[in-house]
Automatic annotation (TrEMBL):
InterPro entries: Agmatinase-rel, Ureohydrolase, Ureohydrolase_dom_sf, Ureohydrolase_Mn_BS. Binds 2 manganese ions per subunit. Its cofactor is Mn(2+). Its EC number is 3.5.3.11. This is Agmatinase. Belongs to the arginase family. Agmatinase subfamily. GO terms for biological process: putrescine biosynthetic process from arginine, via agmatine. The gene is speB. NCBIfam families: agmatinase (TIGR01230). It comes from the Bacteria. It is an enzyme of class 3 (hydrolase). Pfam families: Arginase (PF00491). Mn(2+) binds at residues 109, 132, 134, 136, 213, 215.
Length: 285
């Protein structure tokens, strides 16, 4: 059984045995290719979450009415991506073994791979829904295959064609865009096609891993991220997309790439908190 955390995300203080969802942080940014700082994302989200109400007027639901447990941040070795991923995988395995849904807070986007490996082991027919500004489909970045620029490619290596669904993408190598058009369900620039994808996946009943890279948001709304890309979506659009994905059988999720010190106003952290609150409320039953 996991021990309670000292400072929890807003209202996520249910006893572990009763919790439907277990939140945990992966403060890792060792492979960040531009501006580091996402290691401070999980703790910033927790600390600033108390500026939010537990009630969501968007969903007419209140976090206080549900059982969510925050197990805190993992202690991760910054010099070894593989060892960090193994620690994330182990924590995810524990949560899944106990019949609960894991929600991971990054950290850079590479942290997704550790959780995804654990979830795939339990759900071999797993699909991945990916919101991001970047394709993350490089074979390697400067010779390193375990990089936040390669995380979706590593997931692809595990599940192959037709099971990765990408939205909001607006940056990447020409080769990555070509690969995506051939090998993934690829919807660049926004959420066009999401309803059709969700309807199909819902009908099939397949398990879904849902990963949200917050740089899918336009940097005018969310400047606090390591690799900002103009032309992104805004919070209302992201919220509606999250609510739509919730109609599928989501079995695990993550939110990543907040670098809080890059937005001294705190607005990016506040937005990240709101995304986490709304995501939690879509996942609880």
């Amino acid at each position: 059984m996991l021990a309670p955390n000292v400072e929890t995300f807003l209202a996520c203080d249910a006893p572990y045995k009763k919790a439907q969802i277990v939140l945990f942080g992966a403060p890792f940014d060792s492979t960040t290719s531009y501006r580091p700082g996402t290691r401070f994302g999980p703790s910033a989200i927790r600390h600033e979450s108390f500026g939010l109400e537990t009630y969501s007027p968007y969903q007419d639901k209140d976090l206080e009415d549900y059982a969510v447990f925050d197990s805190g941040d993992l202690e991760l070795p910054f010099g070894s991506p593989r060892r960090a991923l193994d620690a994330i995988r182990k924590r995810t395995e524990t949560i899944l073994r106990d019949g609960k849904l894991p929600l991971l807070l990054g950290g850079e986007h590479l942290v997704t791979l550790g959780a995804f490996e654990a979830v795939l082991e339990k759900y071999p027919d797993l699909h991945l829904i990916h919101f991001d500004a970047h394709t993350d489909l490089r074979e390697d970045y400067l010779g390193e295959p375990l990089s936040h620029a390669c995380v979706i490619r590593r997931c692809y290596d595990l599940i192959g064609d037709g099971r990765i669904h990408q939205f909001c993408i607006r940056s990447g190598l020409k080769e990555e865009f070509s690969f995506a058009r051939t090998h993934t369900d690829f919807h660049p620039f926004g959420f066009d096609g999401l309803k059709e994808t969700v309807d199909r996946l819902k009908e099939e009943g397949v398990p879904i891993y849902f990963t949200i890279d917050l740089d899918c948001l336009d940097p005018a709304a969310f400047p606090g991220t390591g690799t900002p890309e103009s032309g992104g979506v805004w919070f209302p659009g992201l919220l509606q997309a999250i609510l739509m994905v919730a109609k599928t059988r989501v079995v695990a999720s993550d939110v990543n790439e907040l670098s809080p010190h890059l937005d001294a106003s705190g607005a990016s952290t506040a937005l990240a908190c709101k995304v986490v609150r709304e995501l939690l409320l879509t996942l609880v039953k």
